[in-house]
Specification:
The structure holds two protein chains of two kinds.
Chain A lengths: L2 E4 L2 E4 L5 E7 L8 E6 L6 E5 L3 E2 L7 E6 L2 E6 L9 E6 L11 E5 L1
Parallel strand pairs in A: 2-10
Antiparallel strand pairs in A: 1-3, 3-8, 4-5, 4-9, 5-6, 7-8, 9-10
Chain B lengths: L2 E5 L2 E3 L5 E8 L8 E6 L5 E7 L8 E3 L7 E6 L4 E6 L8 E7 L5 E2 L3 E5 L2
Parallel strand pairs in B: 2-11
Antiparallel strand pairs in B: 1-3, 3-8, 4-5, 4-9, 5-6, 7-8, 9-10, 9-11
The chains are: A mainly beta, B mainly beta.
Chain lengths: 107, 117
């Protein structure tokens, strides 16, 4: 399953809403789709699993939605620590592919 | 507290071998499907492979670039995941992370593997 993320880069200001897209080349079974945040020098931070379930400790400004082939990560109000690279991953079918990433940068 | 701690990374020459470990705590390791992913310098996240739980047959699956060279195993008696890496190539240079989606998920801090002559 090929995952295509868009846009490649999102330039926004703190307080703004971020909407990230992840489109799959075929339906992701059981909505086994996750979102990760990646910051330099830190572990991948699991944000969302099962397309819409927030992982432990993740603030409620992060939300995931979608099913089948179209998935979205929304950050309702960007905080300074949210500027990072975000990856989606389907973890049902081997190989468990990642998207190429969306960079959320400060405008 | 759910915790995953990788170890075993280091510097190795092309063709060499290395074994990574991932110590798990805070969840029922026996029931968890465990995964290795990596990130090379300047590149995105790449799935390496996974091992299913014993009840699911302890089946292993691998990404094409590492098939035949890497082996994932687990020791449920010590809650430890392993990644045996043989015939290493320069393109295997990366941070390696272990993780699981069991429960609400957990991922480790990573260990750096550098393959260079």
């Amino acid at each position: 399953i090929v995952l295509t993320q868009s846009p490649g880069t999102l330039s926004l200001s703190p307080g703004e809403r971020a909407t990230l897209s992840c489109k799959a080349s075929q339906s992701v079974p059981n909505n086994h789709l996750a979102w990760f945040q990646r910051m330099p020098g830190q572990a991948p931070r699991l944000l969302i699993y099962g397309a819409s379930n927030r992982a432990t400790g993740i603030p409620d400004r992060f939300s995931g939605s979608g099913s089948g082939t179209d998935f979205t990560l929304t950050i309702s109000r960007l905080e300074p620590e949210d500027f990072a690279v975000y990856y989606c991953q389907q973890y049902h079918v081997s190989p468990c592919t990642f998207g190429q990433g969306t960079k959320v940068e400060i405008k | 507290e759910v915790r995953l701690v990788e170890s075993g990374g280091g510097f190795v020459k092309p063709g060499g071998s290395l074994r990574l470990s991932c110590a798990a705590s805070g969840f029922t390791f026996t029931n968890a499907w465990m995964t290795w992913v990596r990130q090379a310098p300047g590149k995105g996240l790449e799935w390496v492979g996974r091992i299913k739980s014993k009840t699911a047959g302890e089946t292993t699956e691998y990404a094409a670039p590492v098939t035949g060279r890497f082996t994932i195993s687990r020791d449920d008696s010590t809650n430890t995941l392993y990644l045996q890496m043989n015939s290493l190539k320069t393109e295997d240079t990366a941070f390696y992370f272990c993780g699981t989606f069991y429960g609400s998920g957990a991922w480790g801090q990573g260990t750096l593997v550098t393959v260079s002559s």
